[in-house]
Design brief:
- The complex is a heterodimer of chains A (708) and B (52).
- By secondary structure, chain A is α+β, with helices and mostly antiparallel strands.
- Among the domains of chain A are: 7-80, 2-Layer Sandwich (Alpha-Beta Plaits); 227-315, Calcium-transporting ATPase, cytoplasmic transduction domain A; 398-434 and 539-647, Rossmann fold, CATH 3.40.50; 435-537, Calcium-transporting ATPase, cytoplasmic domain N (3-Layer(aba) Sandwich).
- Helices cover 52% and strands 19% of the residues of chain A.
- Chain A has 25 helices and 27 strands.
- Chain A is elongated and about 115 Å long.
- By secondary structure, chain B is mainly α.
- Chain B has a domain at 4-31.
- Chain B has helices at 4-27, 34-40.
- Chain B is elongated.
- Chain B starts with a helix and ends in a 12-residue tail after the last helix.
- The relative contact order of chain B is 0.07.
- The chains are: A alpha+beta (708), B mainly alpha (52).
- At the A-B interface, helix 1, strand 3, helix 4 and helix 5 of A face helix 1 and helix 2 of B.
Chain lengths: 708, 52
């Protein structure tokens, strides 16, 4: 009885595809018309900003049907998990902020218009009427738009703390309150426009900050969603596709060649080779047969395997590795950002200054109304418009610049931490190397050995076979004519050639000596045997980035879980003096902690699960997009392209943005040094406050834009 | 100065229309794909009727 194949009973009629290479209007219309031409597609819509397509289709349509269509058009396409995406698609918090910003902008422009009339000399009843209209616009607007500040300030005060929002709230409320009182008493000065522009500029800073974080967050979640969590469960001889979260202990699970183990388990049937490089950093595939234990995250290479799950979900070795990460994480929170440092100095200072000027004027004149007016003016003038924009404007500009160079900044303070780095630690497999082998000794073999080897290798998806195929094809070799080709999973490929048996595979299977290097062996019955030696190919830019970092006086260290010989060889090739081989995840973590305890600021670049703890413990961390999701989640910056070169760009941009942030703080301080004495002396008019506030905010934003 | 009685409500009304238009565009997801929108105007394919 044959095995019946059932498609998953998953109810999504909506398929999401990631299209990383689209860039123009021709791409959009090509993709949309190709997808809409398919009979069971109802509607396809491309989003160029997010580089995604969303497709409404019949329930039986899956991404596997759509991806080949797009690949034929020349576009790379990956399935995204619609469930994960849907959670982030509508950014409610961002919309709410934008709405408040729009209302504040509308109101402040109208009130500013009315204020200009007052400033240019409206008198008596006319002035009072303008003030009353301003009040009618301002009070409801503040009640709606300034809510985020009120909420944060209240939360801080309830915990007995002070944050930036406390002086902001006080300034807005005092400005509105005293202005209302002045208006009721036909006073000359009302600060309604100041209260509104303050809200508007500060909301702009908040919105920029939120947008940077939201973009990074949705992109990071998109990377997670790239690995669609499904597995094939065998139930009474039927293969059923289920979500990984539905698997339980004792389930029989089918893992096809090229698939990743979804759970920890024991092999029940089938032989193959498994790639453990993500878990341990080992480059050599291991033989796997019945009773071999496998761990979640390992990749099955050659033959189909049936495994019995021994641990699922939280209990898998993959999740136990997360415990190490949690330990390392507690160290991470020690970092205080520049903005927090500034706020800590600033918030108490402003209150003391304003209280002192109130007390001083009251003792001097015993005029309560005037003293409160001056205290409010001091609060408005010192209010951190420029300070609130100083950091988000710079990080927005810097993240935008790095995103165009192919880096994704996931954490707001990553740039500040990156600017301090003096030691760079690299992982080997998958980070400095591509984790893909390359044939080194093609010149040592006779032409007909190569022809036979190519013909055998062509039929397999084993990484060594694929590397051999590519190298032989590049050298212009034509495959020999073979009969009866079949793959023996876990061992190699066998065939008949001119009535002789030929084999390509492991050393022990063809009766050859294995040796220390990564190799595949060709054996021809009644003939010679040949050894093909492979090395792991360097990632683009590995050589230049190591050299650039060393030239800039940074210490470069190589840490790998791979064997001594392989690590030493790579270290010599790249000119890295300090290297550690056969390091367990815990070793990497403790080594990084030692470095940090010795006052080093460490940048960790890694991709494997065995690097996750080290990535979290380091001052700042980078992982390539090809890394496992756990490593990407643990790191602050993700490299989207294949090359390592952007890292040096990131270091330069980080340096620049930190100096821009400090410049912005200086600009904001300078403006306060000039304006505060004027306010304390009682000379500040609403016009002066409006001018100073707008000027400083605009200077700070323009200074940040210089980064682009 | 009596002209202000008309002018101020008029300016507020016009500004309010702008604000309401903005709120409408945001509620109907018109800012989801700014890059795509700027490219789509170059496309030769358009619908005579918007899709339901």
């Amino acid at each position: 009885m044959g095995v019946q194949v059932h498609e998953a009973p998953i109810e999504d009629t909506r398929v999401m595809l990631s299209l990383p290479t689209i860039h123009c209007s021709a791409c959009i219309s090509k993709i949309e018309s190709a997808l809409n031409a398919m009979p069971n597609v109802h509607e396809a819509r491309v989003n160029l900003t997010l580089k995604r397509a969303s497709i409404e289709a019949d329930p039986d349509l899956t991404a596997a049907d759509l991806i080949p269509v797009l690949n034929d058009l020349g576009f790379e396409a990956h399935e995204l998990d619609a469930g994960t995406i849907a959670a982030t698609e509508t950014d409610k918090a961002g919309r709410a902020l934008l709405m408040r910003l729009a209302v504040a902008g509308f109101a402040s422009m109208n009130v500013m218009l009315l204020s200009v009339a007052v400033w240019s000399g409206a008198q008596d009843a006319t002035r009072d009427m303008f003030h009353w209209i301003s009040a009618a616009i301002t009070l409801p607007t503040i009640a709606f738009s300034a809510q985020p500040f009120f909420k944060n300030a209240w939360a801080a005060l309830r915990n007995g703390a002070l944050n930036m929002d406390v002086p902001i709230t006080l300034a807005i409320l005092l400005a509105a309150g005293t202005s209302l009182y002045e208006t009721a008493n036909s006073g000359h000065h009302a600060y309604f426009d100041a209260a509104l522009t303050l809200t508007f500029f500060l909301l702009a800073g908040r919105y920029l900050d939120h947008r940077t974080r939201a973009i990074a967050k949705s992109a990071a979640e998109e990377l997670v969603a790239l690995e669609v969590p499904r597995a094939i469960r065998i139930e009474r001889d039927n293969e059923i596709t289920v979500r990984v979260s539905e698997l339980t202990k004792g389930d029989m699970i089918m893992v096809r060649p090229g698939g990743r183990m979804p759970v920890d388990g024991v092999i029940v049937s089938g032989t193959s080779e498994i790639d453990r490089s993500f878990l341990t950093g080992e480059t050599l595939p291991l033989f796997a047969g019945p009773d071999t234990h496998v761990s979640a995250g390992e990749v099955n290479l050659t033959g189909p395997l049936t495994i019995r799950a021994t641990a699922v979900g939280e209990d898998t070795s993959l999740h136990r590795m997360a415990d190490l990460v949690a330990v390392a994480e507690s160290g991470r929170s020690r970092y205080t950002s520049l903005a927090d440092k500034a706020a800590k100095l600033y918030a108490p200072g402003v209150h003391i200054l304003s209280a002192l000027s109130f007390a001083g004027w009251y003792l001097f004149t015993f005029d309560l109304r005037m003293s409160i007016n001056i205290a409010a003016a001091v609060l408005i003038i010192t209010c951190p418009c420029a300070l609130g924009l100083a950091v988000p404007a710079v990080t927005t500009a810097a993240s935008g610049r790095l995103f165009r160079k192919g880096m994704l900044i996931k954490n707001g303070t990553a740039l500040e931490r990156l600017a301090k780095v003096d030691t760079v630690v690299f992982d080997k497999t998958g980070t400095l190397t591509q984790g893909a082998p390359q044939l080194t000794n093609i010149g040592d073999h006779s032409r007909h050995d190569l022809q036979v080897a190519l013909a055998l290798a062509e039929t397999s998806s084993h990484p060594l076979a694929m590397a051999l195929t590519q190298a032989a094809r590049d050298a212009g070799i034509k495959p020999a004519g073979l009969q009866n080709i079949h793959e023996v999973p876990g061992y190699g490929i066998e065939a008949r050639w001119q009535n002789r048996t030929v084999r390509l595979g492991r050393a022990s299977w063809v009766g050859a000596d294995a040796g220390a290097s990564t190799s595949a062996h060709l054996w021809i019955e009644d003939g010679n045997s040949a050894q093909f030696i492979f090395v792991d190919r360097l990632r683009d830019g590995a050589q230049s980035i190591v050299k650039a970092l060393q030239d800039n006086g940074k210490t470069v260290i190589l840490m790998s879980g791979d064997a001594n010989v392989a690590v030493e060889d790579l270290a010599n090739r790249l000119g890295i003096k300090d290297w550690i081989a056969e390091a367990l995840p815990g070793d990497k973590l403790s080594r990084i902690n030692d470095l940090i305890d010795n006052n080093a600021h460490v940048l960790m670049v890694g991709d494997g699960l065995n690097d996750t703890a080290a990535l979290t413990a380091a001052t700042v961390s980078i992982s390539p997009a090809s890394a496992l999701d756990a490593a990407r989640v643990a790191s602050d910056i993700v490299l989207l392209g294949k090359s390592l070169d952007p890292i040096s760009d990131a270091l330069i941009t980080a340096d620049k943005s930190v100096s821009r942030i400090k410049e912005n703080f200086r600009i904001a301080t300078l403006y306060n040094i000039i304006a505060v004495p004027i306010a304390i002396a009682g000379f500040a008019t609403p016009l002066a406050a409006a001018l100073a506030m707008s000027l400083s905010s605009i200077t700070v934003s323009l200074n940040a834009l210089r980064l682009k | 100065m009596n002209v202000l009685i008309y002018l101020i409500p008029a300016s507020l009304f016009l500004g309010g229309i702008g604000l309401i238009a903005f709120i409408y565009t945001m509620r109907s997801n018109q800012y989801d794909d700014p890059d795509g929108n700027s490219q789509r105007i170059l496309s030769d394919e358009w619908d005579d009727h918007p899709k339901p």
